[in-house]
């Protein structure tokens, strides 16, 4: 093989790897996802403005979890639980079950194809929204995004992540109170910590950044968004 051909192939694979690493999946988990009065949606708009100024929109996929008319597969008796049991037993799926299974498989495939993940969510009742949990149940799959170990490691962990090929996550998170400071609400800040553990520790993502719009119930809007913009700029330097 000539030097020129080798050089061209090398450049092709470098460019291809860069394109793959920049593919971004934006998951909006707000029930009122198209209402820009909500701070999490305003964080999304800030992100999109910065993204579009640097990258092609062809590499961006936006997925609104509450725009599915109830078609997000769930761990329920007549949905994923039954499907998984029937698959394990080698039984044929019904037409409805096959449709649910294919939707779940498509969500997983799409998730794995994007090396950059942006999650947009408010804090609802001190936790993530219900459909965000449903979405996670479709992508946190053994032998796909993580695997179990034969024995615990030195930390006692019995699983390891499979999403280790430069996957990075960014959480755009809005809350009515301030949870990031040493106050009463600090111990209730488990929603972002849950997401960080799932993606970083369980799936193996390289990084997990958090940008907050917090204190939305009482702080001035400009103060909240100015701080969020500053933190978003910092996070994006490590995200792309």
TrEMBL record:
Broad EC category: oxidoreductase
Give the note describing cofactor binding and stoichiometry.
Binds 1 FMN per subunit.
Reaction(s) catalysed by this chain, per the record, are:
N,N-dimethyl-1,4-phenylenediamine + anthranilate + 2 NAD(+) = 2-(4-dimethylaminophenyl)diazenylbenzoate + 2 NADH + 2 H(+); 2 a quinone + NADH + H(+) = 2 a 1,4-benzosemiquinone + NAD(+)
Enzyme Commission number, as recorded? 1.6.5.-, 1.7.1.17
Arranged from A to Z, the UniProt key words for this protein are: Flavoprotein, FMN, NAD, Oxidoreductase
Task: Name a GO molecular-function annotation.
Answer: FMN binding
Cofactor needs: FMN
Every copy of the Flavodoxin-like fold domain together lies at 23-234
The family database entries (Pfam families) matched by this protein are listed as: Flavodoxin_2
Task: Describe its assembly.
Answer: Homodimer.
What is stated as this protein's family in its record? Belongs to the azoreductase type 1 family.
This molecule's function is given as: Also exhibits azoreductase activity. Catalyzes the reductive cleavage of the azo bond in aromatic azo compounds to the corresponding amines.
Q: Write down the PANTHER family for this protein, in alphabetical order.
A: FMN-DEPENDENT NADH-AZOREDUCTASE 1, FMN-DEPENDENT NADH:QUINONE OXIDOREDUCTASE
In Swiss-Prot or TrEMBL terms, this protein is called FMN dependent NADH:quinone oxidoreductase
């Amino acid at each position: 093989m000539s030097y020129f051909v080798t050089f061209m192939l090398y450049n092709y694979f470098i460019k291809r790897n860069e394109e793959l690493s920049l593919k971004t999946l934006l998951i909006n988990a707000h029930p009122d996802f198209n209402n820009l009065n909500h701070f999490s949606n305003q964080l999304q708009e800030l992100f999109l403005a910065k993204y579009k100024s640097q990258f092609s929109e062809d590499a961006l996929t936006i997925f609104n979890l509450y725009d599915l008319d109830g078609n997000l597969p769930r761990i329920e008796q007549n949905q994923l639980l039954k499907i998984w049991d029937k698959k394990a037993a080698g039984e044929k799926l019904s037409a409805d079950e096959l449709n649910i299974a294919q939707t779940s498989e498509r969500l997983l495939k799409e998730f794995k194809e994007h090396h950059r993940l942006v999650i947009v969510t408010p804090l609802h009742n001190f936790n993530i929204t219900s459909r965000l949990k449903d979405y996670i149940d479709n992508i946190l799959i053994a032998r796909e995004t993580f695997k179990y170990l034969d024995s615990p490691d030195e930390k006692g962990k019995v699983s390891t992540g499979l999403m280790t090929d430069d996957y990075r996550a960014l959480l755009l998170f809005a809350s009515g109170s301030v949870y990031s400071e040493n106050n009463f609400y600090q111990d209730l800040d488990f929603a972002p910590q849950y997401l960080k553990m799932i993606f970083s520790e369980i799936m193996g993502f390289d990084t997990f950044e958090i940008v907050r719009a917090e204190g939305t119930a009482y702080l001035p809007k400009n103060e909240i968004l100015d701080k969020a913009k500053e933190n978003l700029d910092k996070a994006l330097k490590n995200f792309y």
